[in-house]
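Incident log, structure service

09:12 report received: a user says their structure output differs between two submissions of the same chain.
09:20 pulled the input from the user's history:
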Amino acid sequence: MRATRRGFLLGASALGLLAASPAGAADRPGLAQLAAGFARPPADSRPMARWWWFGGAVEADEIVREIKAMKAGGFGGFEIQPVYPLSLDDLKLDIRNKPYLSKDFLDMVSVAARTGRAEGMRADMTLGSGWPFGGPHIDVEHAAARIVKQDLSVPVGAEAADLPALEAGQRYVAAFVGTSPADATPVQISGARATFAKASADRTLYLVLQTRTRQQVKRPTVGSEGFVLDHLNAQAVRKHLEAVGEPLLAAFGDDRPHAIFSDSLEAYGSNWTDDLLPEFKARRGYDLAPHLLSLFHDTDRSAGVRYDWGLTLSELVNEHYLSQVSAWAKSRQTLFRSQTYGTPAVTLSSNRLVDLAEGEGAEWRQANSTRWASSANHLYGQPVTSAESFTWLHKGAFRATPLDIKAEADVLMLQGVNQFIVHGWPYSPPKVAEPGWALYAAAVFNDHNPWWPVMADVNLYLQRLSHLLRQGTSVADVALYVPTEDIMSGFQPGKDVSINDVLRKTFPEAILDGLLDGGYNFDLIDGDAILRRGIGYNVLLLPHIERIAPEAYERIRAFAEAGGIVIAVGAPPSKAVGLKDAESHRVAELSKAVFAAKRTAVTDEAGLVGALNGFLPPDLGRAPKGVGYVHRRLAGGDLYFVANTTNAPVAATLAFGVSDPLGQAWDPVTGTADSFRPGSEVRLAPFESRVFVFGRDLAAPREVIPADERSLPLTGGWRVKVGAKTREAFGSWTDEPSLQHFSGQGAYSRDIEMTAADLNAPAIALDLGAGGPGVANERKGPGYYAQYDAPVRDAAEVYVNGQRAGAIWCAPFLLDLKPFLKAGRNRLEIRVYNTAINALAGRPPTDYTALRAVYGDRFQPQNMAELKPLPSGLIAEPTLRFGPT
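09:34 re-ran on a clean worker, output below:
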């Protein structure tokens, strides 16, 4: 759900015409309840863990232990994801691979279901092994299909040609003959022979075949190998539900999973199905067969035919896959969580057909799959957007730090995420050498990770913000039109027919940079959503749109005439879609009507922000580049999540788009709240975030007491023990040769004296130092990490007089010790944890030769071949700071 900004609402008549008011407004919590939820967020907003079961080599005792460890670490649930084996059977290590859906495997699913329920944990189940869905139950006739074209030479005077032999899963779709695709005409196929009239010149026989992609399920567990199913074929989907879904749900018994899960659609090349021709004719009103060459070759009909083909593909995947799985899940008292993007050609509005739409991708300044999912949820009134999180975080395994987690989490939340599915938790047999098993890519979040002792602190940060960002309604001024019609009009066989992939690769970055740097937040929207839900935004942006469905454009005209702001970047739309309407002038006429309205403009990227400023001030003005925000409208107030995504401190006087003079600044790491007045300077450390809440129903927070800060360097007197070794120096543990390959805990302790006058300070903060950006590393590929040389490598727990005072794992690397200090002598202990990389760097990479000889090459470890020890420990002696924090 979403809301427009106060003071810039459309008139009542326009709002009634274009969008219904969000339901449940009266049920939203007040600000006092919000503050209570911030301090102690509910369990349902805890992160979940993707739980990898490698080769089904899981045992009941360890399943129970790991679920309890997840709960202790702040996780609210798990998603069982069976994947490839990591070991052959090994009796010495108690490793026994259990074939997928065997009784032994399903018994382990039952153990996990019962234990999860007993521990009050949410349990989700992936409806397959690896991805996309498929396996040994999918025969070639139900496998993902595509069309291909073969060109055969036809000599002068020939009247027929023998066609190539068909393989399993293939069939002839159509044939054409001519000197070029432009003049080719359909010919008759009888059996394996095409017949045609004689001609006086050499010609080409263009043969269109349906074949199978023959794609195999990626990363399958033992016994789940096989073809990817045909998502456009209702029977193939039904077969998968019966063969895989029913046994899995039976294993859960009465403890139904909270949701079944489908990973991203990566059915590469899938663009056809057995009954596509009759389905196409029934839906589009003409026969596709005579026009098939226009899919492969550019003709004057290609754009229209390709659009009609793409639209038919999207309708079939919607009806035969998404709707069928959703209905099946509902009938079995569970939900359908889906990453609804990729191939086949699902649209943004396809997300309306699933219960829980999920995204993936931390590139917050791109139109990526995360923004795709959150926008759809805002459009269709779903309050929770989950994300497969940290998929490639500082790859490879065990390299990621808590600071990396926060850096990526913040940019995910800037895109609308409010439920984290961490990627992930590797099941690891107890007898395997530390740090245990790991997926070929992604961070490790289990209790084999050296910095695990602060996992609950990191998860509390994610939980606290996930709860806050579900409250009220999303506020985004700009709806950015997805050029679905243009993208479908460019679909071609041989290329993946994916709307979101094309969008991500080709969408003008200058538009997104202009909006975000200009202080405007945005959602994506498509024509289907406009027809179904209206335009509930202040601004509709048409970015280089050439083709648009006239029905959707009619609604845009009504929006503009009712006072809505419409801005075209580049020329306004000029062409209709589909073969039948290709020559229609209706869109060009509508463009004249739309842009005759008062609050409309046609501009380029350079003039976009200026055009927006002329109609509507930004929702968050004067923010430095790299500072992003999310705005939620609450009952009686407003909430802004603001994050510094850069590795440098920022200071600015932010212009919030609210009129309330009362506000508070909430620290989501510590859970503390301070008073805040609009117009005050906001300071954020590298990768730091803050929540600003405005409204008159706010309880009195602590007041920031101005004071002259004084500091006490904690120089000397330290006792330092790293593992079993005692050392005197601060600095990286790796400076000492004997600790080069140590991963684990280092303890720093000393006594500090406090006077009664000292304890009068409003805060007494332990400061580990500022750190710095270090060498700027360019991020290559999908991986995300915090480019920062932190003063603690990589996380610390702080104890005062034997009592845990908290953890330090992100900037500004401070912790208020005052509540734990007493007058006189106090024992301070800082327990520091690094990553497992140093230990792993001291041993050769795992040799998977024997494993691959049996199971094939199912994975390649990422960035694990040439590991080097990383800086670890406290880099410099800390300081105590007295005064306000």
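09:41 both user submissions now match this output. Likely a transient worker issue. Closing.
09:42 reviewer note: Residues 165 and 192 are 7 Å apart (CA to CA). The radius of gyration is 30 Å.
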